Structure formats: C-alpha cells, structure tokens
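sry for the spam today, last one i promise. struct tokens for design, 396 residues
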C-alpha cells in the first residue's frame, strides 16, 4: 500500500465532495464552496481516501485579530479507516503551518471531539441551546426601551456587518466574517415556506443591535404552532438585548423559539423571570489547537505578568520546551528560557487557558496542569483572564 498527501486537483473535487458527504452524512452540494487549493488529502494507491481542508480565516482573540487555519471537510471512506491516514495528514498540516509561520492556531467544529483531542486539540468554547415558548420571555427587571425596532431592508448588509464588527471587537473565538460567510450562511434564503427576518434595534437613530431569524409554519397548515429559529443575535447595550427578545415575546402564533448558538456567558438566563423555561442545554463548540506558542503573543492581555512554563507537545515538537511569556497591555513576547518553570502542561491545556475556557486555577484543580509554584496561580489567573467567555457562532 502506498500513501500520498497532497491537495486535490480540480478534476478530483467531485470525489472530494462525495467522500466528505459520505463521512459526515450530508449532501455533496453542501461542499461546493471548497476550493482545491484549500484541500490537503490522503491518497491510498492513487485513490482519494481521506478528505481534509483548511480555510484561511481570522478570529477575534480577546481584543485582537489572529489568522488561523479553519479545518473542515475531514472524513475517510469506511474501507480506509483505522489505518493512520488522518494522523499523517494532521501532523503534516501542523508542520506546514509552522514552516510558513503565518497561522499559529488551527480550529474546527467536530462531529466527534474525541477524534481531534488525540492531536492536541481542546474544546475551547461551549454553546448553549434555548427552546422557549414566547409567553415565558418575561424579564425579572423589565425596562422600557427608549428606541425602536425596524426590519433591515435588502441593502442592509453593510449595517449588519458593521454592528457585528463592533460586537465581536473585544471577544474571543468569534470569526471576522468574510462577505461570503454572510451571503452563503447568515443571510442565505431559507427553504420554501420559511421566512427570513432581519430586525434592527435603534435609539435616536443609532443602530445598537440586530436579530436575524427564520420562521416557518407547523406542518399540516395549522394556524398556530409555528416556529422560530434564531440565526444571529448582536447587541451593543442591555436595552438592545432586551428589546430584541421582547419583540419575540409578542409572537403569539409561535409554538417555540429556538437558538442553538447562545454563548456561554449569554445574559438571558440571568434576566428572565423563569429561566428554566429556556430548557437550556450545553454542548461543545469550537475546538482549537496551539500549533505554535507564538499564538500567545497575538492575544490581548489586560494584566501584566511574566509566566514561565514547560510545554509538552508530541505532535508539534517545536513547542516542547520551557517558555517565558512576558505579557503587557501594550503587547507581549515569548521566548525559550532556562528559568525554572512555574507549571508544566500539555498543548491541549494551553489552548484552554489561551481562550479562557478554564482558568489556570481550574485547570490545576482538574489535573490538566502541574503547578510547581502554587503561589503564582493568582497571577496566572489574572494574566490569562479574557474579557468575555469564548464563543464561535459560525460553523465552517
């Protein structure tokens, strides 16, 4: 058996889409947007066996922007599984990223998190799902919004994009959406019988938030029992947030409202009169991998401090070293050091800390890092703290 890794050629893309669709149980047409130059596939005896793609994207990183590799379309036909193909592709992908030095993080949405945690990925954000009846959208401390709501017209893309950019500025994990992601995901027209609505909240003529949702009728033509699925929600003020939700509370014909991408620190559970009626559930969201520790210098810090740590990384051996991170509000730097380490940790734990999914104290308590100098934990907590909990509402 021979095994080769390389990008798929243009004439091989139909097979690429077929394999991806078979592995992920989806339609091949879903992957028509993938370009051949983004792929890096495995070929066994000349036949495409494992699909893999890496999209160039940028995410917010606690107030800064960082380019990253958006890994997607990963799959193998059943007859080619359990042969180590994905491991070879994954490790070569890490090597390529490191050699080019342009992207220090790889991230993905996983069908199964266990597949990728073997390669140093960690679950760096958690998403919540709400399913609530409109009548239960009642606030414990109701406010009378001073603004008004209006529907964004067809030419409202620039307005929505500008609001989104302001909303994600200081957050971590959110993607800086290219126009194509808006057109083909966020604002794409829903199936027949469904209605796409874009509602903007304004105060004194200033837009302060929006909600994009799809509504559809109950099968069978019933006058009641319709549904709403929220696609995107952005708010710049508490009044905008409450007004957008209260707008849904007036929709008496709706059986339920569903939002599958609520951030972990979404305020609604702490605002409603009866939050249990949200029927909230939690699930893993973004998985990320620190391919190069230089990623830590592209993250913003609100607290100055010097952290030294021993990093263990079998898949990216260039990371395996003792490092000193000097973080400041203005910027930061990292370099190999001979100073004694304050802690020892694997690459997956470093990803958790970098994104703020857990604090260093929490990581220490759960056994994900070995703290050699416990008195430094308060400093680590302050330095690695993020302004918001990590979130990524866009699948790629």
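last one done:
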């Amino acid at each position: 058996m021979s095994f080769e890794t390389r990008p798929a050629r243009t004439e091989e893309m139909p097979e690429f889409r077929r394999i991806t669709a078979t592995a992920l149980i989806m339609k091949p047409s879903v992957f028509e947007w993938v370009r051949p130059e983004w792929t890096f596939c495995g070929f066994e005896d000349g036949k495409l066996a494992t699909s893999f793609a890496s999209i160039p994207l940028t995410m917010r990183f606690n107030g800064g922007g960082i380019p990253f590799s958006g890994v997607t379309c990963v799959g193998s036909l059943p007859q080619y599984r359990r042969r180590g193909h994905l491991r070879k592709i994954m490790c070569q992908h890490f090597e390529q990223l490191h050699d080019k030095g342009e992207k220090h993080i790889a991230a993905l949405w996983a069908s199964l998190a266990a597949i990728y945690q073997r390669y140093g990925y960690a679950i760096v954000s958690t998403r919540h799902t709400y399913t609530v009846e409109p009548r239960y959208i009642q606030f414990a401390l109701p406010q009378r919004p001073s603004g008004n709501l209006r529907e964004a017209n067809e030419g409202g893309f620039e307005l929505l994009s500008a609001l989104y950019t302001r909303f994600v500025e200081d957050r971590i994990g959110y993607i800086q959406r290219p126009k194509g992601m808006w057109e083909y995901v966020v604002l794409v027209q829903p199936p027949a019988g469904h209605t796409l609505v874009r509602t903007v909240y304004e105060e004194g003529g200033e837009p302060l938030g929006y909600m994009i949702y799809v509504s559809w009728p109950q099968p069978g033509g019933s006058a009641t029992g319709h549904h709403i699925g929220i696609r995107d929600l952005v708010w710049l003020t508490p009044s905008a947030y409450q007004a957008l939700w209260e707008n849904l509370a007036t929709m008496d014909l709706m059986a339920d409202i569903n939002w599958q991408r609520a951030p972990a620190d979404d305020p609604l559970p702490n605002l409603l009169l009866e939050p249990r009626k949200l029927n909230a559930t939690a699930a893993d969201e973004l998985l990320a991998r620190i391919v190069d520790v230089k990623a830590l210098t592209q993250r913003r810090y609100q607290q100055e401090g010097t952290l030294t740590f021993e990093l263990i990384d079998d898949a990216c051996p260039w990371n395996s070293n003792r490092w000193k991170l000097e973080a400041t509000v203005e910027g930061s730097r990292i370099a190999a050091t001979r100073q004694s380490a304050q802690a020892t940790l694997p690459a997956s734990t470093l990803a958790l800390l970098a994104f703020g999914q857990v604090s260093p104290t929490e990581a220490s308590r759960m056994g994900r890092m070995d703290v050699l100098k416990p008195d430094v934990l308060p400093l680590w907590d302050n330095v690695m703290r993020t302004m918001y909990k990590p979130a990524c509402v866009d699948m790629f």
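The mean pLDDT is 96. ok im logging off now
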